[in-house]
Amino acid sequence: MDAEQLREYGHKMVDFIADYYKTIENFPVLSQVEPGYLRNLLPDSAPNQPDSFQHVLDGEVAQLILEFIRLHIQAKILPGVTHWQSPNYFAYYPSNSSVAGFVGEMLSAGLNIVGFSWIASPAATELEMIVLDWLAKMLKLPEDFLSAGQGGGVIQGTASEAVLVVLLAARDKVLRRVGKDALEKLVVYASDQTHSSLQKACQIAGIHPENCRLLKATSSTNYALSPEFLSETISQDLTIGLIPFFLCATVGTTSSTAVDPLLSLGKIAKSNGMWFHVDAAYAGSACVCPEFRHYMDGVEEADSFNMNAHKWFLTNFDCSALWVKDRSALVQALSTNPEYLKNKKMADSKPAKTWFLMYSGKLAKLVASQANMVVDYKDWQVPLGRRFRSLKLWMVLRLYGLENLQCYIRNHIKLAKHFENLIAQDPRFEVVTPRIFSLVCFRLLPVRDNESHGNKLNHQLLDAVNSTGSTFISHTVLSGKYILRFAVGAPLTEEKHVNAAWKVLQDKATSLLAESL
């Protein structure tokens, strides 16, 4: 594809995407197709010749892309899409997009670099370090997490990858102290409200399943992890010769946005020589607002901290920010240095171990990766290759600025509070847990005081609402109760969309309650 062809294709695709956003409310939020629908629409194998080959020969590039959009994207792909950017999307947690994020993603795709090391693309490494320092300062993280010291930030794909790499770092750190044969004695701690990615990380890291302690959290603590329960469990494990080494706390759990008491938990972790990780994948975004920053109090005790800019911070997926206080722990656990990735030695100054590289006829000084004076992000993650993801975060921070991002977060929280008030006005419903951020957990009360019937009733209500296609919500289970979740966070959501979703919920509830009499 030459430059002019890219220009023509690109214009048509941008027009299509812009039109998609303009009409996104016309689509069912939740895809209505059946499993396997797409296989019936596509051939069994890839074509030998390009579609509309004659158009290509005739130079009718614009016609080709328009036909491709009409015949394939609109007719075959969009029916199978659940529209996460719809203003009527209230399920799970949001996955934000924005003009700035989109343009940054486009630029990343256009440059198409593979920035595994500093020399592979210096701008990719250095911009990532800078923007993660910016974001850390917005969150008022301790200076230990900044790149000027022994720590720093790195963009992972998801919070699942973030917890895996710090778990691996913590595992190797403790095994260097107690011996590699002690793997079967290592114990991980978290509440049972912690994201399931921790369990997967334990499986990958070789932690015995019975040594992954997911401690029960109850309504008495609003589903936060109890420090007393944690201390008691650790003491019992120490008594039988096990080795506590990793504690994961959460700011904004997936089920109900519970906030674990970081300060108390961090002190317990420190007194037992454990790695303390804080998962703020969803709620971390809200903590750029001063009125919500106190939910992170105690983060100074943490060894690592994670938040997803792609959830609620207008940065297109994927962009999960992870900070560590000691980057050497990651490097020791994840570093490989095969010959084909080593920097070419042009000149060697032995005391400083500096090298030089000829570039564009000028002598450019290159500080070698082997001298530990530059960051090679390949050693901070599981894969070798990595995309230029910092571009989109940089554009979001530059084009919106902190004040606009704070207003964006506050507006969603205001809309969630509005929804909470609507529920309070209808005695048929109840709010189940205190709303902290922009998630409301609620349920329809059963006609009879029967939890089994209540669970069935709310399951039916969820299905009835989602089957309309006009809105999409999800569920969880808390203390054995089937709970509905209403998460406000789509960039296009306004109060009218919240009101419309509530009307659907009320209407479907009325029908279900009439049937149950």
UniProtKB/TrEMBL annotation:
<dbReference type="GO" id="GO:0006520">
    <property type="term" value="P:amino acid metabolic process"/>
</dbReference>
<keyword id="KW-0663">Pyridoxal phosphate</keyword>
<dbReference type="InterPro" id="IPR015424">
    <property type="entry name" value="PyrdxlP-dep_Trfase"/>
</dbReference>
<dbReference type="Pfam" id="PF00282">
    <property type="entry name" value="Pyridoxal_deC"/>
</dbReference>
<protein>
    <recommendedName>
        <fullName>Tyrosine decarboxylase</fullName>
    </recommendedName>
</protein>
<dbReference type="GO" id="GO:0030170">
    <property type="term" value="F:pyridoxal phosphate binding"/>
</dbReference>
<dbReference type="GO" id="GO:0005737">
    <property type="term" value="C:cytoplasm"/>
</dbReference>
<keyword id="KW-0456">Lyase</keyword>
<comment type="similarity">
    <text>Belongs to the group II decarboxylase family.</text>
</comment>
<dbReference type="InterPro" id="IPR002129">
    <property type="entry name" value="PyrdxlP-dep_de-COase"/>
</dbReference>
<dbReference type="GO" id="GO:0019752">
    <property type="term" value="P:carboxylic acid metabolic process"/>
</dbReference>
<keyword id="KW-0210">Decarboxylase</keyword>
<dbReference type="InterPro" id="IPR015422">
    <property type="entry name" value="PyrdxlP-dep_Trfase_small"/>
</dbReference>
<dbReference type="GO" id="GO:0016831">
    <property type="term" value="F:carboxy-lyase activity"/>
</dbReference>
<feature type="modified residue" description="N6-(pyridoxal phosphate)lysine">
    <location>
        <position position="311"/>
    </location>
</feature>
<dbReference type="InterPro" id="IPR010977">
    <property type="entry name" value="Aromatic_deC"/>
</dbReference>
<dbReference type="InterPro" id="IPR015421">
    <property type="entry name" value="PyrdxlP-dep_Trfase_major"/>
</dbReference>
<dbReference type="InterPro" id="IPR021115">
    <property type="entry name" value="Pyridoxal-P_BS"/>
</dbReference>
